[in-house]
From TrEMBL:
<dbReference type="InterPro" id="IPR016039">
    <property type="entry name" value="Thiolase-like"/>
</dbReference>
<feature type="domain" description="Hydroxymethylglutaryl-coenzyme A synthase C-terminal">
    <location>
        <begin position="195"/>
        <end position="412"/>
    </location>
</feature>
<dbReference type="InterPro" id="IPR013528">
    <property type="entry name" value="HMG_CoA_synth_N"/>
</dbReference>
<dbReference type="InterPro" id="IPR053544">
    <property type="entry name" value="HMG-CoA_Synthase-like"/>
</dbReference>
<comment type="similarity">
    <text>Belongs to the thiolase-like superfamily. HMG-CoA synthase family.</text>
</comment>
<dbReference type="GO" id="GO:0010142">
    <property type="term" value="P:farnesyl diphosphate biosynthetic process, mevalonate pathway"/>
</dbReference>
<dbReference type="GO" id="GO:0006084">
    <property type="term" value="P:acetyl-CoA metabolic process"/>
</dbReference>
<dbReference type="InterPro" id="IPR013746">
    <property type="entry name" value="HMG_CoA_synt_C_dom"/>
</dbReference>
<feature type="domain" description="Hydroxymethylglutaryl-coenzyme A synthase N-terminal">
    <location>
        <begin position="3"/>
        <end position="175"/>
    </location>
</feature>
<keyword id="KW-0808">Transferase</keyword>
<dbReference type="Pfam" id="PF08540">
    <property type="entry name" value="HMG_CoA_synt_C"/>
</dbReference>
<keyword id="KW-0012">Acyltransferase</keyword>
<protein>
    <submittedName>
        <fullName>Hydroxymethylglutaryl-CoA synthase</fullName>
    </submittedName>
</protein>
<dbReference type="GO" id="GO:0004421">
    <property type="term" value="F:hydroxymethylglutaryl-CoA synthase activity"/>
</dbReference>
<keyword id="KW-0414">Isoprene biosynthesis</keyword>
<dbReference type="Pfam" id="PF01154">
    <property type="entry name" value="HMG_CoA_synt_N"/>
</dbReference>
Length: 445
């Protein structure tokens, strides 16, 4: 069977930055460590006044096409995943194709375009759609572009305000991929939940504390479902485990629970038992309360063990390096986590070709999906070509008053104009409104 997977990726961050420790925490009267240590975030990315989900997605896609030497004829499908769409009918992929047609010869009239919605997991679902399209033999030798793009804004004063972000990841899905091959093994955990939703409104209604519990519950289901098809997971099977990362502290919680799950009834549990005892089993307790208390104590002790700390530092922490500086990118978040991991491998001189990764996606509402991927021989060249560090370093650092102006500028309910803070260069920009209320874009050299 020919390998199908992610051939290449490109990233585009919003051009502005809000520093959580320096700017956000003092304004809220909070200890900066609530954000840097508790949530695990240093800063969030924001879109400048000329940026939105179309410009960021089109810019990432153009970088992808330029770097891979692609023309519109090479692309048979453009799918956009977003939870920040501004149109209930016309998909964002048509706007992005329109942008790209301004700068390339030819057009995308032959390309199937769509928009996927299931909160943050829609990016992974779009990758799946592209994979299935190629596997079904319907691609006529062409590749698919999947764009995960979001302006993850919360209402001001919402508990989620510290976890905002803005950016896009473009992924090229092809046969014989250079970056990772996707496995056919997948596990799902899906249930009708009301933890985070946007009922025809721009900013989410969120039950933050509950959303954390729903994330963990659905992830556990997905892991069990994955094991039912791929066999039991062993803690050393995967070189990295990229998770959906609304904030790194969320992944810290999920990783500890995953570790407890996969080490149960293994030699690792026995080895750990010498220091912290065996994992509590429900049947050994009279009621749920006692059992849950014992689990909490076990988890606290587990997180202090050298074995757990080494595993976390090697397998999970490298997936969080970009998220710490850019915040939540919703649909793009798990794809950024994959890039972070491989970037760390490159920076530390680790050859991961042929190694497996366990990728854990999540969308509120709610669904988790877990699948395996195998890193391909071309990974180093692909990751070395990314300029995400420069993009992150070049962002304009907003003051609090400027942040409020930017937030208002991107609020669909307010009609506020704002001078840009950065000068666009070699990128698509929002250029005003058309006669039917459509948004218009142009390419700035
Ligand atoms: N030093 C160190 N740590 C500190 C601290 C300090 N001075 N002060 C607080 N902390 C810790 C807290 O103990 C807590 O850590 P633990 O959960 O490990 O105990 C952490 O910092 C956050 O503190 P709070 O829980 O008090 O923070 P909060 O209530 O203000 O906000 C939140 C947390 C509810 C998750 C909020 O950020 C939120 O609503 N976020 C949006 C929803 C979200 O991202 N949910 C995640 C799952 S849903 C999902 O993944 C989909 C998605 O993308 C949205």
């Amino acid at each position: 069977m020919t390998a199908v997977g992610i051939d290449a990726v490109e990233v585009w961050t919003g051009n502005l930055k809000l520093d959580l420790a320096e700017t956000f925490a003092p304004e809220k009267g909070d200890d900066p460590e609530k954000y840097t240590k508790g949530l695990g975030l240093r800063a969030s990315s924001f879109p400048d006044s000329y940026e939105d989900i179309v410009t960021m997605g089109a810019n990432a896609s153009k970088e992808l096409m330029d770097r891979k030497g692609l023309t519109p004829d090479d692309i048979g499908r453009i799918d956009v995943a977003t939870e920040s769409s501004f149109d209930n009918s016309k998909p964002i992929s048509t706007y992005i194709a329109g942008c790209l047609e301004q700068v390339y010869d030819g057009d995308f009239h032959h390309a199937n375009k769509g928009e996927r919605k299931f909160a943050c997991i829609a990016g992974t679902q779009s990758v799946d759609d592209a994979y299935n399209w190629i596997r079904a033999g319907r691609n006529r030798g062409r590749s698919a572009i999947v764009v995960a793009t979001d302006t993850a804004l919360y209402a001001r004063g919402d508990a989620g305000e510290a976890t905002q972000g803005a950016g896009a990841v473009a992924l090229l899905i092809s046969e014989d991929p250079d970056l990772v091959e996707l496995s056919t093994h997948q596990g799902y955990g899906s249930a009708d939940e009301t933890d985070f939703l946007k009922p025809n409104q721009q900013f989410p209604s969120v039950d933050g504390k509950r959303s954390v519990q729903v994330y963990l519950a659905r992830m556990r289901e997905a892991l069990e479902d994955y094991e039912s098809v791929a066999g039991d997971v062993h803690i050393d099977d995967f070189v990295y485990a990229p998770f959906h990362t609304p904030f790194p502290g969320m992944v810290r919680k999920a990783a500890a629970l995953a570790y407890r799950h996969v080490t149960r009834d293994t030699g690792v549990e026995e080895e750990l038992a010498e220091g912290i005892g065996r994992q509590p089993r429900r049947e050994s307790f009279d009621d749920d309360g006692q059992y849950e208390e014992a689990v909490r104590e076990y988890m606290d002790a587990l997180k202090e063990t050298e074995q757990y700390r080494d595993w976390y530092a090697g397998t999970v922490d490298p997936t969080l390096s970009i998220a710490r500086d850019v915040g939540n990118w919703y649909t793009a978040s798990v794809h950024l986590a994959r890039i972070s991991a491989l970037k760390t491998a490159l920076e530390t001189g680790r050859d991961v070709a042929g190694e497996s990764m366990l990728v854990a996606s999540y969308g509120s509402g709610a669904q988790a999906e877990i699948h395996g991927e195998t890193v391909q021989d071309g990974w180093e060249e692909e990751i070395a070509a990314l300029d995400i560090d420069e993009q992150v370093a070049d962002r304009y650092d907003l003051s609090w008053a400027e942040y409020e102006q930017v937030h208002d500028r991107h609020n669909h309910e307010t009609d506020s104009e704002l001078e840009e803070f950065t000068a666009p260069e070699a990128e698509f920009v929002f250029d005003g409104w058309g006669r039917m209320g459509e948004r218009k874009y142009t390419y700035v050299e």
